[in-house]
Amino acid sequence: MTETLTDLAETTLREQIFSGRMLPGTRFTEAELAAHLGLSRTPVREAAMRLQTAGLVTVRPRHGITIASISVEDMAHIYEVLTALEIVAVGRVAARHPHAFGELAQLQRAVGNMRYALSVRDMGTWASADEDFHRALVELSGNPELVTIFDRYTDRVRRARLATMHHRPLPTASLDCHAAVLEAIEAGDAATAQQLHGTHLNAARTLLTELIRDHGTSRV
């Protein structure tokens, strides 16, 4: 599929927001962003609307485009939704016995990549593998509505995690949790998989919200 100018604008803006080159609260006019990207205003406007849907910017007519912040409260609310969603997903996956059909390769690969990343202390690779695990879990649930809701929050969670990555302890306990969840799924033990995954997500929420609160201005 050919990348459109809107796609290019969206990708570039997303990368600059995630990298911290565009700071929360910074406001731009369409003309300023268009000049910055070397594009016309129309694809920039369309890209900004997409990013607003993803929760990365806010767009106000005649007031410009503002890089959104994520507060402690925002992230706590998002994790509350994701925890409920993923507990349903992990139960569905375990109950389906997907290992019998060779469908667990994505989860197994993600855990393997997390284990490798931890061994070489590559937190960027770790974060990608962790996200792959959670996405595969939701996709394997067989419920496309769960995937739609999951996708709604992906960018905001990724952004908060990237912004706090260098303040995090090594995720040894998190690796153990992912491996235990996978083991329970492979055994078809839905109740144990749900309990373990819920505990993991609650711990992840606590860590992330504490990091957001303790570093910077409680905003990411």
Question: Runs with pLDDT <50, length 5+?
Answer: none
CATH class of the largest domain: Mainly Alpha
CATH architecture of the largest domain: Up-down Bundle
User: Biggest β-sheet: count, sense, barrel?
Assistant: 3 strands, antiparallel
Q: From N to C, what is the helix and strand string?
A: HEHHEEHHHHHH
- In CATH terms, the superfamily of the largest domain is GntR ligand-binding domain-like
Count structural domains.
2
* Helical amount: over 70%
| Shape category | elongated
CATH fold annotation of the largest domain = Four Helix Bundle (Hemerythrin (Met), subunit A)
Description:
With 220 residues, this protein is mainly α. The chain folds into two domains: 5-67, Winged helix-like DNA-binding domain superfamily/Winged helix DNA-binding domain (Arc Repressor Mutant, subunit A), CATH 1.10.10.10; 72-214, GntR ligand-binding domain-like (Four Helix Bundle (Hemerythrin (Met), subunit A)), CATH 1.20.120.530. The protein has nine helices and three strands. The chain has helices at 5-19, 30-37, 41-53, 72-95, 105-119, 123-140, 144-164, 172-186, 190-214, and strands at 27-28, 57-60, 64-67. The chain has a three-stranded antiparallel β-sheet with strand order 1-3-2. A hairpin with a 3-residue loop joins strand 2 (57-60) and strand 3. Helix 4 packs across helix 6, helix 4 (72-95) crosses helix 7 and helix 4 (72-95) packs parallel to helix 8. The radius of gyration is 19 Å and the shape is elongated. The model has no long low-confidence stretch (mean pLDDT 91).
